[in-house]
Automatic annotation (TrEMBL):
Boundaries of the shown chain within the full protein: 774 to 1050 of 1050
Annotated ranges, domain EAL: 24-276
Name this polypeptide is given: Cyclic di-GMP phosphodiesterase Gmr
Amino acid sequence: RAKDAGGNQCAFFDIGMGELTQQRFLTEHELRIGIPAGELRLFVQPQVNAAGTLVSCEALVRWQHPRRGLLPPGVFIPVAEESDLIIELEHWVTREACRLLAQEEMAGNPLHMSINISPRHFRQSGFCDWLIDLLQQEGNDPAYLTLEITEGMVIDNIDELVAKMNRLSKLGIHFSIDDFGTGYSSLAYLKRLPIDELKIDKTFVQDAPTDPDDGALVETILSIAHHLHLKVVAEGVETPEQAMFLNSRADVIHQGYLFGRPEPADIFLARRWQTLS
Ligand code: C2E
Ligand code: MG
Ligand code: MG
Ligand code: MG
């Protein structure tokens, strides 16, 4: 029992829970406290064109945990996605991103940024109103914001999804399909949704030069994007061979360690201003 454990709070969770469940329970509990306590960090990763010029970037959240150190999203996003906690988390990320974009815009060098929006959050009835309010409050031009959604979003209630996306799209907000090709939905949705961009998942990108199957998959995605007039972002580009494979086939935007890792937003911005001046 917790009392006998002499201050070890974790013992409280022992009754009837597996170790993994306990860990998730604790993570959720600590995140619920950690978000309002200011423990989230906005990291940013560059997206560059074939010439190596910065064209956009992606906001990727991290959690500065008081005991466990800086945690990658894989550790806590799946936990957050099981409850409305993901909404609170993405409110934080979106607000930070919008502030940063507004600041860069005011300084005369606007920046494009993508943020990840989970299905639960996007499906929430007040999502559009909330985002439009936020953009107004922060003074953003919506055209600099891209929302990354996944194929999982498309599975049910496509009419409502289309209506919401159209509403935001008319204001200038862009949409991207993240991890394209890893979901299970039919391709038919691609022509119904106001999408601007496909992101090729890193598993395909990384093996494309060496594995003919992955190579063929990447070529198929490039071809779909070409025919539907969509931009393509390749995730996880780590080697010159991978970059070359893509560049020799299409006009692709690169996001990967070869061009820059995710780094704290202030460091990313400082570096950007150095190259601009
Ligand atoms: P994602 O949206 O597909 O983001 C791309 C992931 O690939 C990032 O992992 C990025 O750091 C990683 N990556 C980029 N280039 C390379 C590379 O060259 N090599 C390798 N090995 N990896 C590379 P990260 O930052 O760990 O984020 C993982 C996932 O967490 C993201 O995948 C996204 O699904 C999720 N995530 C992050 N922030 C948020 C958020 O605010 N909301 C939601 N719902 N999910 C988020
Ligand atoms: Mg993403
Ligand atoms: Mg992705
Ligand atoms: Mg991915």
